[in-house]
Design goal:
11% of the residues lie in helices and 48% in strands. The protein is built from 1 helix and 14 strands; from the N terminus they run αββββββββββββββ.
Length: 190
């Protein structure tokens, strides 16, 4: 059984990626490209960008940066090279996500992180730092779901989980691990 504290990482990832899709949608809004533009040519390219979103009082909420962002006219896909996302929340703790590439669907309802996906929840209050590593992570923000179709590795001070695949439903608060699942739990020492 996975402790309640360890369920916050996948939920935080979903919230983080929902915010990521919102920032990218706002950053890429440009004038339409001519109709004769090739479907493979990007409508807009941003290089070495760093975007910070704040709340109404001016406190930072999250930061998105990437080496390159490309938005395509025909497919309306958005691609990121070396995306880095940080959710800044002093109460819930900082969460960082990084990958080699990311693709965001036209509607922003699916985000795919690929290549050395690494999500870290910083240590906070009575929770130790937690990491999630995988090669590919699919995020469905509107459905509050997160999937890793391949091997996944989750670690904190008390728990190590390796599985062939993972599906997390935040609404139901259920994590389904499949394939060869190996879990090691260390009891908390007083």
């Amino acid at each position: 059984m996975i402790s309640r504290g360890s369920l916050w990482l996948p939920l935080a990832i979903l919230l983080l990626l929902a915010a990521l899709s919102f920032v990218i949608e706002r950053a890429v809004q440009m004038t339409p490209a001519p109709e004769h533009a090739a479907e493979k040519d990007p409508e807009g390219i941003m290089e070495n960008f760093d975007a910070l979103r704040t709340d109404a009082s001016g406190r930072p909420q999250y930061r998105l940066s990437a080496k390159r962002l490309k938005h395509y006219t025909g497919s309306k896909l958005t691609e990121l090279e070396l995306p880095r996302f940080v959710r800044l929340d002093p109460e819930a703790g900082e969460i960082r996500a990084a990958a080699r590439e990311a693709t965001i669907s036209p509607a922003g309802d699916e985000v795919e992180l690929r290549g050395d996906v690494n999500v870290v929840r910083a240590a906070h209050a009575e929770q130790s730092a937690m990491t999630l590593r995988t090669a590919r992570l699919l995020v469905f923000p509107e459905q509050d779901q997160l999937r890793s179709p391949g091997p996944v590795d989750i670690r904190d001070d008390l728990l190590t989980v390796r599985a062939g695949a993972m599906h997390y439903d935040a609404r139901l608060r259920v994590i389904k691990l499949s394939g060869r699942v190996h879990t090691r739990y260390l009891p908390r020492r007083n």
